[in-house]
């Protein structure tokens, strides 16, 4: 019974940290993202256009808080924090938010900020509410190899691009169905046009494939050196995503794929990318559990 209560207290401490500044900052960032999403949704339900003077600053504040939290986490290990499922998911959320902050003011797509805030809030909260995802590291991240760290960081950053692409795809599918079924509501009039969404999706797809190509090439270099035991599944996942997004890109260039079908493919591939993180993280976890515990405290003292 005492062990059960101790486990509950440990899980509660992981979810709602008091003395863990990095997780606390991440919680604050999710609160800021959630407020931005809630504001946009309320404005939409009231059939009023959202204003960027509220949504964008809230997302920017959340981004700064999340950056600080991930920075503190990285300082603990002396490397980019990508050692467990929690850190990987948070880095994807961070990348998606960063891209929105960069391209949002340029393209000025209505409700993109609200949709992005809702996506990163939901994804980030799931990673925070599952204590087992944030297991401690017992081995050096990436073996201290900068090429492996570059491959991991670029791969996850490409997932952030595809995360924003999936957000655009969701907005496109909503607007497409509204037009096809002739739904008459002022809410759909506030959504961005499918032409603007398709143009943005094309640019994000090209950028994502470029970054994913860098991840794939760097992964091949690491694989040839046999420097990372957990790379086999990861490299296979990157190759599948690279081929999948590449096929959609080529078919769109040749006008063989409609924007509607491409949007469905974007969502499917992104879900595959997220689910593919679990085996990689489990391989890290198994490797950590197989490492022998330290026996320093069992060494008998030397006689003087």
From TrEMBL:
One of its GO terms (molecular function) is heme binding. Residues 291-304 have a biased composition (Polar residues). GO terms for biological process: cytochrome complex assembly. Residues 83-274 form the Cytochrome c assembly protein domain. Keywords: Membrane, Transmembrane, Transmembrane helix. It comes from the Bacteria. The chain crosses the membrane at residues 24-42, 54-72, 84-104, 111-130, 150-174, 204-224, 230-250, 262-280. Residues 284-304 are annotated as: Disordered. This is Cytochrome c biogenesis protein CcsA. It comes from Puniceicoccus vermicola.
